[in-house]
Amino acid sequence: MKNLNYGIIGLGKFGSVVADELIAGGHTVIVADKDEEALKSIQNPPSYAYILDSTNISALKEAGFHDVEVVIVSIGENVEKSILTL
Predict the structure, then answer these.
(1) Dihedral sign, Cα of residue 40, residue 43, residue 45, residue 47
(2) Separation of alpha carbons 17 and 80, rounded Å
(3) What total number of domains does the chain contain?
(4) Residue ranges in the chain assigned as alpha helix (H)
(5) Domain range for residue 57?
(6) The pTM is what?
(7) Which of 49, 58, 72, 75 has its CA 20 to 30 A from that of 13?
């Protein structure tokens, strides 16, 4: 199976587990969260990690999210922000 490049936005309970599993599987993973502490919740070091506002399209592009095959948005606390991120 081909290794895909993934982007994960939001590293709460769900996002951090997904990131860990993908990283353990050998995939290239870009992660982003607005909270630096959330980045520390990942057990396996990601390929790239960013602290940014997920509604800032320029920041997402600069982080490389436009180059990945799959983006997982895992922002559970604010539905409106999740929709804006999409």
Answers:
(1) negative
(2) 23
(3) 1
(4) 13-24, 36-39, 57-63, 79-85
(5) 5-85
(6) 0.83
(7) 58
